């Protein structure tokens, strides 16, 4: 059972150095996530411990010890070096949740590269904007996804395409085949001498306007990720841990790789589509003890009922956590009934790199609340007009954090003004570093919440137009831009539409080009167009044709207005709405 101490005990005299003690890491030692998640674990006498338990789409299984992860990630690191990849170069990982993803992630970090994981479901357009923005030097992918890369490579500064799975005979031109299971093991590799501020992982996240933003993380993030994994996920040495997130999403790297392996937990990965039965089977078979998942999945499990739960032996489960969207009180209560313990909600973002507001184990759970700030995190809700912290319980404001926690993002790649706009109290022309270090600065999350008299945070909603579909953030702008490339569409506005399981799904309101009819064929063609250009997540589930779109006088689409109509909410101040 957990022995991590009460929330109150942990708050008192908190210091991030505790993370260093927990990792047994001393100042002056090498701080490289790749090294800390493999070599250090082996050096602690855990070389033969299982690091990865993997099950693939068609039921195939593989497992790797920490020593195997160590030598195989060395092999990736050396191979990348041999290809001319230099420290600081961005290396994209674009593949399903196969073992190569997890192991190459460490390999990239070991040689000083910046790992850029992207969802394999992305189609060429989504891939292209992210590779272009990151000026990605090399991409690791599988044969299945090569055609998307081929489609865009000529226009990109991408030098090296590495295929890690498939048939080498199918490669073209300068594409290189590297299958780590067949490659020579590299027993010793001299890791890049990174420090706390050395760039590590670049995660793309969607915004309301403009293209996706690349949130840059650093090697020092491991302290935040490991400590939260230890105290909130309650990861202990003998845990069998399953984080269901794909590493294309920050949860899948911060907790699906870094937090877990830095603490030497055995990490489970199921690379197959969701069914409740499949998931329960996986928990039962691997005796999963700690489970970190998302509300969409929990709601789907709930829909399939407790009778199904009873058909499996899930008694190994001792601790459950959730992230990505509001976790409904109903889901918390159901999980108590179904699994004998509640899913504990945690709130954080790509930008924060690690958990910020959490239901700390042992703290009384208020179903529907996100919990309280993690020790060491100063959180507030700011008044919507004055940006001052609200002291009145229950009043809604913007969730904000005092900068300075270890896993905080260090910049939005090449978008300094957007980075600066996330901070209140920083000088207008502040550098990213000044934004984080100036006095009285708050990082503003873009979400709204209230705080109750006991200090619990209650999520209210996002402060922008970003759509949260099943825990994945989708930027309306990216979809709108793609929609208007379809021959039938003149204008488009994209909003989130309420959905029972996914919380929101994408809805598009469109104005047609003259001469086009909106019949079933056109609808299907538009949906497929987006699915094939961007990703299945971005595909509108509903398309509504309008004569015109509501716009501000300056020509900006008023998504807020469309959303209010859709959600049956008050439309609010429409003074900026363009006249008829
Ligand atoms: C880790 C992650 C961040 C946004 C965030 C908020 C929503 C995350 C939540 C939650 C309510 C929670 N979100 N956790 N909303 N309750 N417990 O999800 O990162 O993909 O960047 O999304 O997700 O809107 O701002 P990211």
Verbal overview:
- There is one protein chain.
- It contains 19 helices and 27 strands.
- Helix 5 packs across helix 6 and helix 7 crosses helix 8 (143-152).
- It is 31% helix and 23% strand.
- Bound molecules: ligand 6R9.
- Residues 205, 249-251, 323-326, 345-350, 370, 445-447, 459, 462, 468, 473 line the site of ligand 6R9.
Strand percentage lies at 15-25%
Tally of helical segments: 19
Shape: globular
In round numbers, the mean pLDDT is 94
CATH class of the largest domain: Alpha Beta
Number of domains: 3
| Distance N to C terminus | 65 Å
Please give the order of strands in the largest beta sheet.
Answer: 2-1-11-10-12-13-14-15-16
Structural class: alpha/beta
SSE layout:
Blueprint: H1 7-11, H2 17-23, H3 33-36, H4 39-46, E1 50-55, E2 61-65, H5 66-82, E3 90-94, H6 99-110, E4 114-118, H7 124-134, E5 138-141, H8 143-152, E6 160-163, E7 176-177, E8 199-205, E9 213-218, H9 221-231, E10 240-243, H10 250-262, E11 266-270, H11 276-286, E12 290-293, H12 295-303, H13 306-310, E13 319-323, H14 329-339, E14 343-347, E15 357-358, E16 372-373, E17 379-382, E18 397-401, E19 411-412, H15 416-421, E20 423-424, H16 432-437, E21 442-451, E22 457-462, E23 467-469, E24 472-474, H17 476-483, E25 489-499, E26 503-512, H18 520-533, E27 542-545, H19 559-567
Parallel strand pairs: 1-11, 3-4, 3-5, 5-6, 6-7, 10-11, 10-12, 12-13, 13-14, 26-27
Antiparallel strand pairs: 1-2, 8-9, 9-19, 14-15, 15-16, 17-18, 18-21, 20-21, 21-22, 23-24, 25-26
Helix pairs in contact: 2-9, 5-6, 7-8, 9-10
């Amino acid at each position: 059972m957990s022995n991590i101490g009460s929330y109150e005990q942990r708050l008192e005299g908190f210091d991030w150095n505790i993370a260093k003690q927990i990792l047994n890491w001393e100042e002056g030692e090498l701080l490289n996530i790749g090294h800390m998640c493999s070599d250090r674990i082996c050096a602690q006498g855990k070389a033969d411990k299982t690091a990865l338990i993997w099950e693939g789409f068609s039921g195939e299984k593989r497992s790797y010890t920490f020593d195997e992860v160590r030598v195989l990630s060395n092999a990736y690191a050396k191979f990348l070096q041999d290809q001319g990849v230099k420290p600081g170069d961005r290396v994209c990982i674009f593949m399903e949740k196969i073992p190569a993803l997890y192991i190459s992630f460490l390999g990239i970090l070991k040689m000083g590269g910046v790992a850029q994981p992207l969802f394999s479901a992305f189609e060429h357009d989504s891939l292209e904007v992210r590779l272009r923005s990151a000026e990605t030097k090399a991409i690791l992918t599988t044969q299945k996804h090569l055609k998307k890369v081929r489609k865009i490579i000529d226009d990109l500064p991408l030098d090296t395409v590495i295929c890690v799975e498939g048939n080498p005979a199918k490669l073209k031109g300068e594409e290189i085949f590297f299958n780590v299971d067949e490659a020579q093991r590299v027993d010793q590799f001299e890791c890049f001498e990174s420090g706390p501020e050395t760039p590590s992982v670049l995660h793309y996240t969607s915004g309301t306007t403009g293209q996706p933003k690349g949130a840059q993380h650093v090697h020092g993030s491991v302290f935040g990720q490991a400590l939260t994994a230890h105290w909130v996920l309650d990861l202990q040495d003998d845990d069998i841990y399953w984080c269901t997130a794909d590493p294309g999403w920050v949860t899948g790297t911060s907790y699906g790789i870094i937090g877990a392996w830095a603490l030497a937990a055995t990490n489970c990965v199921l690379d197959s589509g969701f069914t409740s039965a499949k998931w329960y089977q996986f928990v039962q078979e691997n005796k999963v003890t700690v489970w970190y998942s998302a509300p969409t999945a929990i709601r789907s499990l709930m829909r399939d009922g407790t009778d199904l739960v009873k058909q499996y032996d899930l008694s190994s489960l001792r601790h459950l956590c959730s992230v990505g969207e509001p976790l409904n009180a109903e889901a918390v209560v159901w999980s108590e009934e179904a699994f004998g313990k509640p899913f504990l909600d945690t709130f954080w973002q790509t930008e924060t790199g690690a958990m910020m507001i959490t239901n700390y184990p042992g703290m009384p759970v208020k179903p529907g609340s996100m919990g309280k700030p993690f020790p060491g995190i100063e959180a507030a809700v700011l008044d919507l007009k004055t940006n001052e912290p609200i002291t009145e319980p229950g009043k809604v404001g913007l969730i904000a954090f005092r900068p300075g926690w270890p896993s905080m993002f260090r910049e939005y790649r090449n978008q300094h003004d957007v980075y600066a706009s996330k901070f209140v109290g920083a000088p207008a022309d502040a550098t990213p570093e000044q934004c984080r270090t100036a006095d009285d600065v708050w990082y503003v999350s873009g979400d709204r919440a209230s705080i109750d008299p006991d200090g619990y945070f209650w999520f209210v909603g996002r402060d922008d137009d970003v759509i949260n579909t099943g825990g994945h953030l989708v930027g309306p702008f990216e979809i709108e831009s793609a929609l208007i490339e379809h021959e039938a569409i003149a204008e488009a506005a994209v909003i989130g539409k309420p959905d029972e399981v996914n919380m929101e799904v994408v809805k598009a309101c469109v104005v047609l080009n003259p001469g086009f009819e909106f019949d079933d064929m056109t609808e299907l063609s538009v949906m497929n167009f987006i699915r094939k250009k961007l990703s299945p997540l971005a595909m509108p589930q509903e398309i509504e044709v309008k004569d015109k779109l509501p716009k501000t006088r300056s020509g900006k689409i008023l998504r807020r207005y469309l959303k209010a109509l859709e959600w049956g909410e008050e439309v609010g101040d429409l003074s900026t709405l363009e006249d008829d």
